[in-house]
Write a structure and sequence with these properties.
Shape: elongated
Strand order of the largest sheet: 2-3-4-8-7-6-5
CATH architecture: 3-Layer(aba) Sandwich
Order of helices and strands: HEEEEHEEEEHHEH
CATH class: Alpha Beta
Helix content: 10-25%
Radius of gyration: 26 Å
CATH superfamily: Mog1/PsbP, alpha/beta/alpha sandwich
Number of domains: 1
Strand content: 25-35%
CATH topology: Protein Transport Mog1p, Chain A
Largest sheet: 7 strands, antiparallel
Number of strands: 9
Structural class: alpha+beta
């Protein structure tokens, strides 16, 4: 009985002990990320909160839906294609538009280089066996880098994509390669 009382008294005393105060110094702050130092093809993005990230596919390393019913989509592809005009004119054909020359395409700086940017509206024929869709809009950007080309495409019903031009460009301009040295390794290979 005495042993039991000693054990109970010891537990009561220990339960009343509080850990001593420790001082913590914050030396840096950082934003939360979906992937921490694990970026598909080394390409880091910062998507708006209104875009819902969905799984990547074989050709889409970053893939999003937006709008209440997910009718809008944004995706990023990285290919070895080096002719920006082939992407621009393929997108134009998907909207029934005539091809253009590279000098007729608007430009913005993306990934530290010139990106060709297009905006299209009308009836959209996406290809790959998918049915044409009326009243659509698309924004696309093509940036050619050593050894790779990055394309970003936003497509959806025109009323859903209206007013999202700055959002699209901000997304494109915030793309960055995590390991910049990988570009020079690709170029020299």
């Amino acid at each position: 009985m005495r042993r039991f009382a000693v054990i109970c008294l010891s537990l009561a005393l220990l339960a009343g002990c509080e850990p001593e105060d420790r001082e913590v110094t914050v030396t840096e702050r950082r934003a939360l990320t979906l992937w921490d130092r694990s970026y598909p093809l080394d390409l880091r993005d910062r998507a708006p909160l209104s875009w819902r990230r969905i799984p990547a596919t074989m050709m889409r390393i970053h893939n999003f839906r937006f709008g209440e019913d997910g009718a809008g989509e944004v995706y990023v592809s990285v290919t070895s294609e080096t002719d920006p005009l082939s992407n621009v004119n393929r997108w134009r054909r998907q909207f029934g538009k005539e091809p253009v020359t590279i000098d007729e395409v608007a430009t913005e700086e993306v990934l530290g280089t010139t990106a060709w940017v297009v905006e299209l509206t009308g009836d959209y024929t996406p290809g790959m066996g998918r049915a044409p869709r009326e009243g659509m809009a698309m924004r696309g950007a093509v940036a050619v880098l050593p050894g790779r080309t990055v394309t970003v495409k936003m497509v959806g019903p025109a009323e859903l994509t209206a007013g999202r031009g700055e959002e699209f460009l901000d997304y494109c301009k915030n793309l960055e390669f995590h390991d910049v040295a990988s570009l020079s390794r690709t170029e020299s290979s």
